[in-house]
Amino acid sequence: MASLDGSLRRRLGLVDSVVIGLGAGIFAALAPAAASAGSWLLVALALAVYTLVAVATLSVLGSAGLAEATGPLARMVSAAGVPAAAPVVRIGAVVAAAGSLLALILGVSRTVLAMARDRYLPGALAAVHPRFGVPHRAELVVGAIVAVVAALFDVCAAIGFSSFTVLFYYLIANISAATLTADENRPPRWIPVVGAVGCVVVGFALPLGSVLAGLGALILGAALYALGERYR
Questions:
Q1: Could you tell me if 177 and 192 are in contact, meaning their C-beta atoms sit under 8 angstroms apart?
Q2: Other CB atoms closer than 10 Å to residue 189's CB: what's the count?
Q3: How far apart are CA 74 and CA 82, in angstroms?
Q4: CB–CB of 87/107 below 8 Å?
Q5: Angle, alpha carbons 76-201-106 (nearest 5°)
Q6: CB atoms within 10 A of CB 1
Q7: What is the DSSP letter of 186?
Q8: Alpha-carbon distance 110 to 104, whole Å?
Q9: 3 state DSSP class of 22
Q10: Single pTM value for the model
Q11: Digit-coded pLDDT (tens) for 64-94
């Protein structure tokens, strides 16, 4: 992260915050039955934490200091007069990043499982462990790919690329939500519209390299899908 350009860091941070909000919109649009008061409270708390951290960091470091910091939260607590808390913050960041990574691996592996069942990926990846009931092969493959990317490629570029593609499938989800009928618990029309516009705006606010890499991957995926459909 030390070599991460300040402008890129700010924009990736913005994407992290906005994606939480866009995800909340999709949650409301596609899972109204699950939108209990408790669930909305958790979403509100997550957004509040993001907002408080952003305000506190900007207040202490300023925009220029935040752009230059390789460990902004640790630097923020040190600048605020509590340097002893910096190691705790770093440990918390590692735990949070690891938890997020594991959650994403679990989610992506289930997507791989579904695609394998539909024959868009090798059928061997559709295997489910007889004892634990998890798609163990898909999880191992996804974990291996993540490890290779983290070891051999620029992590910052991978984050930007990932952010763009995530926002793209959120865009698809919002557009899909807009097609629901009243009998399908259609959300208010403005929710998917705002979500879709937000995905486009934030996605194209990313660095040009991340946008081009994401578009290239999406075009390649669409081409492979069309080719697969032709010969299925």
A1: yes
A2: 10
A3: 10
A4: no
A5: 70
A6: 11
A7: P
A8: 10
A9: helix
A10: 0.68
A11: 888 788 788 888 888 888 889 889 988 988 8
